[in-house]
Amino acid sequence: MRKKWLIVGVIVLGVLGLIVWARLQPDATVEVLRARVQPVRAYVEEQAVTELPYDHLVSMPIAGWLEPIQLREGDPVKTDQVVARLDTEDLRDRVTQAEQSIGELVTRLEETKDHRLEENALVEVNATVKAIDQTVEAAEAKLGAAEAIRDFAASELERLHRIAEADAAANREMRQVEMAFRKARADYQSDLLELAALKTLAAVSYIGPKFIKDYIDRKSFTADRYTKQLEQARVELELAKRNLGRAEIRSPVDGVVLHRHQTRRQFLQAGTPLLTLGRLDDMEIIAEVLTERATRIQPGDPVEISGQALPGGPVAGKVLRVYPAGFKKISSLGVEQQRVNVAVKLDQRPERLGVGFRVYVRIFYAEAPAASSLPRTCLFRSARGGWQVMVVRDGKARVQDVEVGLMNDDVAQIKSGVGPDEWVVAQPSREITEGMRVRVEQRQWDAF
Predict the structure, then answer these.
(1) Mean pLDDT in the chain?
(2) Which residue of 79, 114, 387, 446 has the smallest Cβ count within 10 Å?
(3) What is the helix (H) or strand (E) element at residue 82, kind and residue range?
(4) Is 330 helix (H, G, I), strand (E, B) or coil?
(5) Which residues fall within 8 angstroms of residue 370, CB to CB, at 6 or more apart?
(6) Dist CA 341 CA 287 (whole Å)
(7) What are the C-alpha distances in Å from 136 to residues 76, 140, 193, 209, 419?
(8) What is the Cα–Cα distance from 164 to 171, expressed in whole angstroms?
(9) Over the stretch 108-138, which tens digit does the pLDDT of each residue have?
């Protein structure tokens, strides 16, 4: 009987031991790690695309026939290099025509400005006018003499008439006096008519100098017109020469051909696009960042550029500008977002990176150089929205509130709540609850 009770006691003690052992066993195994001091950088990561801040459009300077363009997309060009040509035959003809027009106008202008014939004619006409004036003066003197003779003859005739009334004059003398009077009167009338004719001739002769002077003035007006036409012709000649010089269309910049708009020989109007050129070294990267994140970004912030377009690995850059105006954009999930462009300048452009290439940018806007940090997978939100972690103390899992500083997709700065020697659950889950006994397995940071 005693032996029986001994066996029962051993069994009971064994069961109790198993129960105690089972209760002392951890409920789960968790991976843990400790916080470590390292730089923590906060960043914004977005897709982006490469573009040039400006390009150079080479277009037709004038209307004309374009020769075939030999350059292709990607071909390098130098400043002042001939990138396209126009047919110069018509342009040379225009230069020749302008030169001939100038020569003809110069000849006409010289002829118009030459007044030697008119001046000689004016001298002759003035001399004629002077001679006529002198003749008029002589005729007036002659008329005065004839008038005096007539008056004398008239007085003599009157005297004889008085004598004849007294029968004292002879008939022969009377007839002689009457004849002398008639002749004197006729001479006077003749001289009067001659004087009138000479005055008329003198009046007409005055028109000659005026006509010549008017003709000279008219030639001066014509000379002014030819002078203006000559100035216009010279301007047209300069324009024709300039257009001839424009037949060789040159590159305004050192760069590459981005796009070729025309290829074959054809007649094109002025302003028609021919080539688009650009400087790839001026390349920028434009990222569309959410406006609430863009407020943290400033020009000069460091940027890491990566993506499949960069097979050589990430390259560095910096924020060039944050655009002042935002815009609405619908995300791939159909959500309306407010975004703003952020321009990034590459420190050095990879050789094969072109315009319009898709890349990823990581814009670092803040940094804590020596921060106590944990992987982001350690953190979770509480019911009230605060950050928490799960630590292991005395073999049990405990929920711990923490104050978080800078944070990115990989790590977070822990300002308070976790000591440097505490074990923190690397990836807490709902199965790990407050007070649960756990077995710990150390995990390396390199796994994150």
Answers:
(1) 82
(2) 446
(3) strand 82-85
(4) strand
(5) 37, 38, 39
(6) 6
(7) 94, 6, 12, 18, 139
(8) 8
(9) 777 777 666 666 666 666 666 676 667 767 7
In this structure, are residues 339 and 291 in contact, taking their beta carbons and an 8 Å threshold? Answer: yes
**Residue range 369-421, pLDDT digits in tens:** 989 999 998 999 988 889 999 999 888 889 999 999 998 888 999 999 998 88
CA 263 from centroid of its chain's CA atoms: 25
3 state SS of 421: coil
Q: Could you give phi then psi for residue 5, rounded to 5 degrees?
A: -65, -30
What is the three-class DSSP state of 12?
helix
* HEC assignment per residue over 168-224: CCCHHHHHHHHHHHHHHHHHHHHHHHHHHHHHHHHHHHHHHHHHHHHHHHHHHHHHH
Q: Which pair of tokens denotes residue 231? A: 């100035």
The separation between the first and the last C-alpha atoms of the chain, rounded to the nearest angstrom, is 65
Q: Give phi and psi for 117, each to the nearest 5.
A: -60, -45
Q: At what angle do helices 171-245 and 116-165 cross, to 10 degrees?
A: 170
Angle subtended at Cα 302 by Cα 36 and Cα 286, rounded to the nearest 5 degrees: 130
- Amino acid 315 reads V
Chain position carrying tokens 């008639």: 182
**Count of residues for the chain?**
448
Tell me which amino acid residue 175 is.
R
Strand-strand pairing, 273-278 and 56-59: antiparallel
Distance in angstroms (rounded) separating the CA atoms of residues 405 and 368: 9
Instruction: Label residue 273 exposed, middle or buried (CB < 10 Å: 0-12, 13-18, 19+).
Output: middle
Angstrom CA distances, 39 to 166, 270, 365, 416, 421, stand at 166, 60, 13, 16, 19
- Exposed e or buried b per residue across 10-37, where buried means at least 16 C-beta atoms within 10 angstroms of its C-beta: eeeeeeeeeeeeeeeeeeeebbbbebee
CA-atom Rg of the chain in angstroms: 60
Q: What letter would DSSP give residue 86?
A: B
Q: Which residues contact 369 (CB under 8 A, 6 or more apart)?
A: 39
